[in-house]
């Protein structure tokens, strides 16, 4: 659009529009300009809406893929795990409470025995003892980091805990095998490979989980609660024990349960120090075997579809069920113990 003297030239028309007063020319300029502006804005909005739709579609597909993979894993483990009871006709009571593990015993000698109770007991014992040792230590460290340590101390502790969480399981197991097992053998007796060695290694491995969750739960508490307690004359320790820890109990217990789940599902580090003897322990110096250790030790020696292989999948299903139980416990704890 151009002007020629007092005439207005519109592009595409090829001719002059008659003399138009200045006021009308300004009105036409504003009208055409607003149309061009609206067109540009609408174009940008359409492009932005198209990009948002594409991003929303990609996010939805990723979320759907995660859900489908989870469902597929659960369905696969469930189908394989139930084969022991549906195909091989093993009773649930025999599988859960049986104390003898001889899945390759021939029929002439009485047939296979697939009692998983010693492995289940080993997993429960080593996990509970690990939490009994690691939980108090982890909570104390979390309190120290958030309420007591100076700034420079927090700057040292936080990277140390993150480094502790990043150490591979095999390194923990190898350190336990090289130092802890000989120490137990020389000072406490036995072979060294024992329940004691297993839960000591696990107690160190679950520390980062308990410390991280507990410290986060303490940091998010309103500062006014601490200030109100101190203003009423409470000491630092009274404030920590009677105000902060009770208020953060839901998050702290969540960290403890997550640590318990971590200990229950650990395989390699525990396998290297517990001796892998399929018997119910009567002392912390006795060797044990856990569900995860039994699976990793036997899976490579079985044929798919055999009774021995199916019972290992049943152990995996048992581990999955226990994991679901831990998730339910966490949900209940957070719901019932969260501060109102």
Description:
The strands form 2 sheets. This protein has a 3-stranded antiparallel beta sheet, with no helix packed on it. It is globular and about 80 Å long. α5 (169-187) packs across α6. The model is unreliable at 1-21 (pLDDT under 50). The protein is mainly alpha-helical and 340 residues long. The longest helix is centred in the N-terminal third of the chain and has 65 residues, at 22-86. Helix content is 71%, strand content 4%. It has helices spanning 22-86, 92-97, 117-148, 151-166, 169-187, 195-205, 207-219, 223-231, 236-247, 249-265, 268-271, 291-298, 307-337; strands at 2-4, 7-9, 16-17, 101-102, 113-114. The chain has 2 domains: 2-64; 102-337, MetI-like (MetI-like fold), CATH 1.10.3720.
């Amino acid at each position: 659009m151009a002007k020629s003297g007092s005439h207005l030239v519109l592009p595409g028309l090829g001719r002059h529009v008659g003399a138009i007063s200045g006021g009308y020319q300004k009105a036409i300029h504003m009208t055409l300009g607003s149309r061009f502006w609206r067109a540009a804005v609408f174009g940008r909005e359409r492009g932005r809406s198209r990009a948002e739709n594409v991003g929303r579609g990609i996010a939805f597909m990723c979320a759907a893929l995660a859900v489908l993979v989870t469902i597929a894993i659960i369905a696969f483990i469930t189908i394989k795990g139930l084969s022991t009871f549906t195909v091989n006709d093993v009773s649930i009571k025999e599988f859960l409470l049986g104390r003898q593990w001889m899945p390759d015993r021939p029929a002439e000698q009485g047939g296979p025995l697939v009692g998983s109770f010693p492995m289940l007991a080993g997993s429960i014992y080593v996990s509970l003892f690990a939490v009994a040792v690691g939980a108090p230590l982890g909570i104390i460290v979390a309190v120290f980091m958030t309420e007591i340590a100076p700034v420079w101390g927090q700057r040292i502790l936080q990277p140390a805990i993150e480094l502790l969480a990043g150490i591979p399981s095999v390194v923990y197991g190898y350190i336990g095998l090289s130092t802890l097992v000989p120490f137990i053998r020389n000072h406490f007796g036995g072979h060294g490979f024992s329940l004691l060695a297993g839960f000591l290694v696990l107690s160190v491995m679950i520390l980062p989980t308990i410390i991280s969750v507990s410290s986060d739960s303490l940091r998010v508490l309103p500062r006014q609660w601490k200030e109100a307690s101190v203003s009423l004359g409470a000491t630092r320790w009274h404030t920590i024990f009677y105000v902060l820890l009770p208020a953060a109990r839901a998050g702290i217990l969540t960290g403890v349960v997550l640590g318990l789940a971590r200990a229950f599902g650990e395989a390699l580090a525990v396998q290297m120090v517990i001796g892998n003897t399929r018997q119910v322990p009567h002392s912390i110096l006795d060797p044990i075997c856990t569900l995860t250790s039994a699976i990793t030790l036997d899976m490579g020696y079985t044929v798919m579809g055999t009774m021995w292989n199916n019972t290992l999948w049943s152990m995996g299903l048992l581990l999955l069920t226990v994991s679901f139980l831990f998730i339910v416990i966490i949900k209940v704890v957070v719901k019932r113990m969260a501060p109102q």
